[in-house]
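Hey team,

Filing this mostly as a record. A colleague (T.K.) asked me to run one chain through the structure pipeline before their review meeting, and I want the input and output archived in the tracker in case anyone asks later how it was produced. No errors, nothing strange. Just documentation.

Input sequence:
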Amino acid sequence: MTDILIVDGDAVFAERLAASLLEHGFPTNACDSLSKALGILHTGTFKAVLLGDDLPDGDVVDYLALIREVPSFPEAIIITRRRDPDMAERAIQSGAWNYITKPLNLQRLLVLLERVITYHTKVHSGFCPVSLRREGIIGNSRAMLSCLDAVAQAATSDINVLLIGETGTGKELFARSIHKNSARRNKPFVVVDCAAMPDTLAESLLFGHARGAFTSADAPTVGLVKQADQGTLFLDEVGELPMPLQKVFLRVLEGRSFRPVGSAREITSDFRLLAATNRDLEEMVEQGEFRRDLYFRLRGMHIRLPALRDIAEDINEMTCKFIQRHCEKLKLSTKGFSPDFLDALMHYDWPGNVRELIHTLEQALSRAGNDAVLFPRHLPKAIRAQIARRSMRPEHQAAKPAHHHEIAPPDAFPDMRTYRDQQIARSEERYLMNLMEITGGDMAASCTVSGLSRARLYALLKRYNVSRK
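Output structure:
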């Protein structure tokens, strides 16, 4: 079994490196192009790929996603002669394990490969345990399993974790899963909604206050930070934390101690910190809107959650689970859904991600009433209209070959006006049939998508004998 593939345009370098690695116990293969590499990777069980950046058939960074999708899920290490910080950053963000420069230090490379192969073996031999508590996380796509691997890794330590993802991607669910799989699982999980804290009460909410600290402070209160003692403190939407409070919280992170508002006594709290944001904190740091030192404190480890549009293969499983859960909650018989219903869900962009999918399914179940099966017409009109509009874009229409036309004899060939009218009629009929299929015959949605008045749409349906069903 070969563990490592070297891909480098310098064949002599690749062969020498392969021989050196083999001498040190690493079975290695080599090739000189990305296209060859993909073919080889799909036929083997490689754990690591060493990628040169002088390849003849493309930008190595652009191929990283394809390389990590092959069946053995190898880790990628980029080897380059260029000391380019921008490329190094782009490579890591695109999924590379590391970025190293030539000339190589063989001993350091051997240590690196040992770590990569150890990690790969653990992860892909079931390191992410079957008993991992998902806390409601659904999906088995590559991206979702990668996030769950990160959850399992984060749960084994007390390192600060920053969860990054769009609104509705489930950042709190992942935070709860980290907590429930950690040594602190039986202690409190305390959520701080940074976006909902009034500036005037923020310190009191976080750190508590002594009696008489301000006008309405009739009794002492315990702040959220102290409530998380021995457990986990989750800062949701941490990018909304006011700048003055960022400075205060940084001191708390450094010493795990603070004074409640109006108190002279310092108290401590042993908490594990998780944070989440849908904003670009790096950009906020550059703009002076977020403290650089706090950002690096938060990002001991980071987990980037995928948008729903990027894990469309999970929509089927999510839909089944959410429908079952909702029906059980309302004590209803579980409903099924048609292939067209699932197809509609797969062709929507889901800007609100999983949260929007859940709300959409709840609305569809409500609209379905006693129907045992969900169809596209049960979806909200706004979503059906968006799906219909997208389906009418040129890239979603069937491509027609530009050759092999059968030419009619001259006496049967129509004049230009007749030909144009025939083509317009065919196009209008096909458009109306697609429109009715996409919108489920809903006239309001059809008018919204087509831009036609109701009267004009009815007239065209009648002219072309197109049914609304």
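Quick notes for T.K.: The chain has a mean pLDDT of 85. The CA atoms of residues 343 and 376 lie 9 Å apart.
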